[in-house]
Amino acid sequence: PLCKVQKLNLGRGKIGWISFKYEKLPNFCYWWGSLFHDDKDCETWLSNKFSLPIESQEYSAWLRAP
Fold it and tell me: Does the pTM exceed 0.70?
């Protein structure tokens, strides 16, 4: 899966977080974060007979860079 956030050591005991955004995600599964299939081909989506709410996706549009 694509990395969403990463912990960053800022030194002197300080920790920060960096979030990632990606450009050009042609085939992307928002359920698994996979580049190898998209939402409509996802086994999770298909096995649940298309009944999973979009809100339960692990990834969403915030992952795409503007």
Answer: no
